[in-house]
Specification:
98 residues, alpha+beta, four-stranded antiparallel beta sheet, 2 helices, 26% strand
Length: 98
Amino acid sequence: MATEKRLFHIGPDGDRWLLCYCPEAGCLYVAHELPPPNRGITVRVELHTLLCGYQSTPQQEALKQLIGTFVVQDTRDVWRVSADRKSDVRFREPSTVV
């Protein structure tokens, strides 16, 4: 399978920041595509490196917003399923989960 990518920021100099997922390895990371004259060079950045930086950067804020959209969408999906299938929703103690 090919690596899935989602563009989340384009810098003022044309550099591009993409959230990437490699399904084969189960690996999630950020790809930073450098601007001209270095076009074609991509630097792999680990998520924790970008998210835990001491200074807030535009690309850090854009990544946080993108991640937030996944959380909001997942929450809406869960509530929608729960509302549609109230009789199917059961809460069990961990020891009784099959």
